[in-house]
Amino acid sequence: MFYLNDIGKYFIMIRMSFFKPCKWKILKNLIFKEINDLIIESIPIVSILSFFIGAVISIQTALNLTSPFLSKSLVGFATRQSIILEFAPTFMSIIMAGKVGSFITSSIGTMRVTEQIDALEVMGINPLNYLVFPKIVALLFYPFVITISMFVGIFGGLLAMTFAGVPSEAFITGIQMDFEPYHIFYSYIKTILFALILATVPSYHGYYMRGGALEVGKASTKSFVWTSIIIIVVNFIITQLLLS
Amino acid sequence: MIEVKSLIKSFDGNLILNNISTKFVQGKTNLIIGQSGSGKTVLLKCLLGLHSPDEGEIIFDGVSNKNMDEAQKTLLRREMGMVFQGSALFDSMTVLENVMFPLKMLTKKNDDEILERAKNAINRVELDKAIQKLPSELSGGMQKRVAIARAIVMNPKYLFCDEPNSGLDPKTAIVIDNLIQEITKEYNITTVINSHDMNSVMEIGEKIIFLENGTKNWEGSNKEIFSTKNKSITDFVYSSELLKKVKKFL
Ligand SMILES: Nc1ncnc2c1ncn2[C@@H]1O[C@H](COP(=O)(O)OP(=O)(O)O)[C@@H](O)[C@H]1O
Ligand SMILES: [Mg+2]
Q: Which of B101, B160, B194 would best serve as a mutation to test chain A binding (most A beta carbons within 10 A)?
């Protein structure tokens, strides 16, 4: 019952963020600021993580494919599949739940406990439109981050294999092997859903928190836990629906 | 003038405001005093419309909140200024941007007019030198001044201040109190101030209501408060050792 109440409040929050909008001139600036904070500033960490994980995936795959009957290009194929299907969209989103999510919760939460949200409301501004809506719009650019993650991850795999002495032609043949556009579709559907979760679940935890500075920290942790759980569960449901 | 009639507000079954009726007078500094937790902030937030009362009505210059639709409530909000307990300045914005914010968000004025109005308000609270600073670079007293400037920049008819001098040293506290009173007279505003500070009571308590556990226990002015026989009031007024000593000489 307790959670049911939260779920209802969460969807009402999302709905309210579209009502009584601020002036477009102001919203536009807010959206650009959020794109910078949430999207652009995530690219470096996403790239570094993707590069090394891509490399590790290819090394481990190569390690397990020792049979001489198996073609060397299989490593490229396996690396591509795991990065595009799972690693880039899902695991990156969980890392983003830590980076972007706790940033959102703590910045909105701080505004709540220092009465800045009350101040907006007193002025007759819809705080949800001012705070949450620009984040939702900014995270529509999130697939762009995941695309970078995919490319950099596969590139990491390629580089690791080149170091290990596997001819890069074999790896590249593997990357191009049995290409299935539906997998890309599946991957981006997930990504868009995760983007919406990343924008709204942490906002919810920040917006409805109560207390002081200590509670802001607690709310960020709680928000990370919930965001990652929801991402993993949604991932499971989507995979069931689209791939099985 | 704001008239409050039989206001009742509870949270999760706890009665916080119990049948409050009073009047807040235009052009005067009206004080709500009482211990921490007596319901001052909740009462103020009811006046502001941040909390909706369970029962009772609030009449703003003859117009009851009960007869207002959403559009009228939005318009009424624009006639209100609020100084929050912790100032509630937007910490990513400079002083100037904070004061310009309501004008930018809510009016159709052009940039020059907005700048001019904001500078006037900042000048009124004597902060011209700090105009480009961030709130984190200001002292508590200066932050309060910015909050006051932001609250008056829209020329409000009603000004609400939640413990405007909490966390300030006694001297700065009096300066802030006096500033609020001067502004109240200058623009003929209906000002309501929450306080638990006896200095404010003496300095600017033109009209005082005393809250105890959510009920209005006493109402009067700072001239009357020292002569009343009301036990709760005398306990509150003479709660400090210093004032108890002073009382002996009265
Ligand atoms: N949003 C809220 N939800 C539940 N209880 C609240 C809320 N706001 C205030 N209260 C309770 O109302 C009482 C009065 O609080 P408040 O008006 O803040 O006192 P003060 O006179 O110190 O300003 C306190 O017991 C507080 O716990
Ligand atoms: Mg209070």
A: B101
Is position A15 within any domain?
no
Specify the number of domains making up chain B. Answer: 2
Strand partners, A143: none
Tell me how far the alpha carbon of residue B43 lies from the centroid of ligand 1, in angstroms: 9
> Residue B12 belongs to what domain range?
2-79+156-249
pTM: 0.89
φ, ψ at B168 (rounded to 5°):
-105, 155
pLDDT in tens, chain B (250 residues): 999 999 999 998 999 999 999 999 999 999 999 999 999 999 999 999 989 999 999 999 999 998 888 888 888 988 999 999 999 999 999 999 999 999 999 888 999 999 999 999 999 999 999 999 999 999 999 999 999 999 999 999 999 999 998 888 888 899 999 999 999 999 999 999 999 888 888 889 999 999 999 999 999 998 888 888 888 888 888 887 777 777 777 7
| Phi–psi pair at B215, nearest 5 degrees | -115, 150
CA distance linking residue A96 with residue A93, whole number of Å:
5
Q: How many domains does chain A have?
A: 1
